[in-house]
Amino acid sequence: MTDAANPTPAGSKGSDAVQQHLTTRQGHPVYDNQNTRTVGARGPATLENYQLLEKISHFDRERIPERVVHARGFVAYGEFEASGKWGDEPIAKYTRAKLFSEPGKKTDVAIRFSSVIGGRDSSEAARDPRGFAIKFYTEDGNWDLVGNNLGVFFIRDAIKFPDVIHSLKPDPVTFRQEPARIFDFMSQTPESMHMLVNLFSPRGIPADYRHMQGFGVNTYRWVNAQGESKLVKYHWLPQQGVKSLTEEDAANIQANDLGHASKDLYEAIERGDYPKWDLYVQLMDDNDHPELDFDPLDDTKTWPEQDFEPKYVGTMTLNRNVTDHHNENEQIAFGTGVLVDGLEFSDDKMLVGRTFSYSDTQRYRVGPNYLQLPVNSAKNAPVATNQRGGQMSFGTDLAPGQNPHVNYEPNITGGLQEAPKTAPSELGPELEGRLIRARLPRTNDYMQAGQRYQLMEQWEKDDLVANFVANIGEAIRPVQERMLWHFYMCDDELGARVGEGLGISLDEVKDLGPLATQTLNEEETNRMKNLG
Ligand code: HEM
Fold this sequence. Notes:
Elements: H1 50-60, E1 73-82, E2 85-86, E3 89-90, E4 106-115, E5 130-138, E6 141-148, H2 161-168, H3 179-187, H4 193-199, E7 214-215, E8 220-223, E9 229-238, H5 247-256, H6 260-270, E10 276-285, E11 311-321, H7 325-330, E12 343-345, H8 349-365, H9 447-455, H10 458-472, H11 477-490, H12 492-502, H13 506-509, H14 522-530
Antiparallel strand pairs: 1-4, 1-11, 2-3, 4-5, 5-6, 7-9, 8-9, 8-12, 9-10, 10-11
The chain binds protoporphyrin IX containing FE.
């Protein structure tokens, strides 16, 4: 396999033989690239003109479907260097994943930063979560950590994902992103409050890709050599610092440039100013933690740092740019199911849906053999499968010495065999329960949203309130009232300030009460009673 960022173009003769003459894809020299072959200088074109047909028909197929979300993005490459330990404690005590095992161990990475809602050519200064997806090309195969810059998400159950995205995407009739539709949905989705307080604050428009944090958001598990497991959350902190834009800053930037963030990243790498992020993890014992006021499997929550101290596990440096945007940016494919030994799923209900969705969409968007592409292949691990055929297949994963006739297993004739088990089975929690549809018992939708507001600096609070008022002001009055009730449940001041901007008083909303689909905990019930 070729280097992900430097694939040898099909038909070239290798890096030291520069192809100087234009050819067709069949290798035929092109003697005239300016004039279509016609009968006489003014006569009709002929249909057997392979050169013209190949050129135009390839052009006709230059695009693949853009990602249904995160369509605009930018890829860079680099390496991750592991710390291997915390003080004297080896990280291997908690995970047997080899990439974290030794101090100084380096792993190749590809990262794709993105925005979520706009199309492939949309503005990079939009108010939108940013994607932060890393592919680690480890010796045990690839590991993808597919996260965002805000640390939490709008919903906690995958079944709601198409709805939340439809509300955020352009109106299917007017094709304009309509705040009225967004807040119609969010006003019925109280778990979105924490994300909304982040998204409508300056953090909702990062200055560029180099100056933003990254978070795994969902809860995963680490498994050690004994099979013992911990719950884990991942956090990336930029050594460059965090910078955000106000609505006004963003408007000025996007008036002139829709791609300022990719440009900034590309140019920084070209001039050798390599951006770096430190990776921290928070760990929790692998159980449901009844003592906490939130569920550890709820991705609308963060884990308090005073109780779950972030621990440093390594640093990522980006030091190489893509050589072809389509091959590497459009065709790179990340997924939450792409894990290596020692890193595991949790029962986080978002993860299950995500894990189905990514490879499903990629088989459609890129094609069934998307994993054969250089940027997606597990370039640092031996790959040996019995998969054959399919559109655009160009390689077989034959192991050295494998009998090429035997693409099935089990066999005794020189085909592939199952890998020997080297680690004990996991000792994760035992689960039992009826098959039901139910929300997580501890929802606690308002507390962390309120705390986030309280922690903001004054200018951030002012920006948040102004953005809420401007956007929620476009919704119908019952939606405005419902949003206001949620804000009062988060924080008195937030409610009062947004209410003032919308011209709606507390008296007009305080009797709204919880949604039919919502249950309040004791603290929230008291808070509701005390409103006003
Ligand atoms: C991209 C589905 C939640 C982060 C995508 C794509 C799909 C998808 C279909 C396009 C992938 C492609 O075409 O290659 C879902 C579903 C979710 C979910 C069904 C919930 C059930 C999340 C969450 C995060 C996230 C919670 C952040 C923690 C990303 C990122 C990308 C992405 C970063 C872009 C990857 C890239 O750069 O290629 N998602 N997503 N998604 N998603 Fe999600």
